[in-house]
C-alpha cells in the first residue's frame, strides 16, 4: 500500500493497515504507526521519501529494545521489515533490498 506519513508523535501518525507499506509522502520526522502486535505477524515499511520518518509501535508496544512507544527512525530510501515475536514486541530483521521491474535498486 502507498501511505502518506503524518503527525510528529505516536498519537497522530498514520496507522499502517497492510503488511507491505511504501511511504511516498512525508515531511521531516512525520511518522507511521505499526498495527497491533500479533505473534508471527510481519510488516515491511519502505521510506520512498527524501526525508527521515519515524516508525512507531502501536500504543503500549515496542520495536527492538527502543522502549515502549518509542519510534524507530527510517532514513530516505531505507526499508524496515519487522516481525512480531510477542503480543507487544516487534523485532527488526536485516534490511530488505527492493528492486523495481527494470532491476533498478529502489533503496
Question: How would you characterize the overall build of this protein?
Answer:
By secondary structure, the chain is mostly beta strands. It has no helices and ten strands. The strands form two sheets. The chain has a six-stranded mixed sheet with strand order 1-3-5-9-10-7, with no helix packed on it. Strands 2-4-6-8 form a four-stranded mixed sheet, with no helix packed on it. Strand 9 (79-84) and strand 10 (89-92) form a beta hairpin. The protein starts with a strand and ends in a 15-residue tail after the last strand.
State the total count of DSSP E strands: 10
Which quaternary structure do these chains form? single chain
**Percent helix:** under 10%
Helix-strand makeup class: mainly beta
Poorly predicted parts: none
Widest β-sheet, arrangement of strands: 1-3-5-9-10-7
Strand percentage? 35-45%
- The number of helices is 0
Q: What's the SSE pattern?
A: EEEEEEEEEE
Distance between the termini: 17 Å
Radius of gyration: 13 Å
Biggest sheet statistics: 6 strands, mixed
The gross shape turns out to be globular
Topology (SSEs and partners):
Elements: E1 2-4, E2 14-15, E3 20-25, E4 31-33, E5 42-47, E6 53-56, E7 62-63, E8 72-74, E9 79-84, E10 89-92
Parallel strand pairs: 1-3, 2-4, 3-5, 4-6, 7-10
Antiparallel strand pairs: 5-9, 6-8, 9-10
Offer a few descriptive terms:
107 residues; mainly beta; six-stranded mixed beta sheet; four-stranded mixed beta sheet
Concise summary:
This protein is mainly β and 107 residues long.
